[in-house]
């Protein structure tokens, strides 16, 4: 089964819960629970985030990491950011938040994210 990730190196892979900010109700809505990956495509020199929901494997995040994408703390286990998310086909600017099991995993995510930002 092809995933579109065959030519990419996995830099980070952890289970998390993703949320999307819904402006119409001014509240966070759960986007999915699953494995979030930060991938690097050497040939194109691009870093991206891909996350699929557990069991159904539906993509709930698919976006590049760019130099201007800062992570903001939401809690000791959670980071918030804005991305041009293509998970539903059309690119849409969304405010997203990812929550990990431990602060250590969240910090590891931030370290790798920041390395990717500066390498893009």
Chart the SSEs and their pairings.
Layout (H helix, E strand, L loop, with lengths): L7 E15 L4 E15 L4 E8 L5 E6 L7 E4 L2 E8 L6 E9 L2 H17 L1
GO cellular component, one term: nuclear pore
Pfam families: Ran_BP1
Protein name: RanBD1 domain-containing protein
Give a short overview:
The protein contains one helix and seven strands. It has one helix spanning 103-119; strands at residues 8-22, 27-41, 46-53, 59-64, 72-75, 78-85, 92-100.
Order of neighbouring strands in the sheet with most strands: 4-3-2-1-7-6-5
What about the largest sheet? 7 strands, antiparallel
Order of SSEs: EEEEEEEH
Count of DSSP strands: 7
Quote the CATH topology: PH-domain like
Determine and state the CATH class: Mainly Beta
Structural class: mainly beta
Radius of gyration, Cα only, in angstroms? Answer: 13 Å
Keyphrases for this structure?
mainly beta; RanBP1-like; 120 residues; 7-stranded antiparallel beta sheet; PH-like_dom_sf; globular; PH-domain like; RanBD1 domain-containing protein; 14% helix
């Amino acid at each position: 089964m092809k995933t579109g990730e065959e030519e990419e190196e996995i830099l980070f892979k952890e289970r998390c819960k993703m949320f999307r900010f819904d402006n119409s109700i001014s509240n966070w809505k759960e986007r999915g629970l699953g494995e979030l990956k930060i991938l690097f495509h050497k040939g194109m020199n691009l870093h991206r985030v891909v996350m699929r929901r557990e069991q159904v494997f539906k993509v709930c995040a698919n976006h590049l990491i760019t130099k201007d994408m800062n992570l903001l703390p939401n809690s000791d286990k959670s980071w918030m950011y804005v991305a041009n998310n293509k998970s539903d086909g059309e690119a849409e600017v969304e405010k997203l938040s990812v929550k990990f099991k431990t602060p250590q995993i969240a910090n590891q995510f931030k370290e790798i994210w920041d390395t990717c930002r500066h390498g893009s």
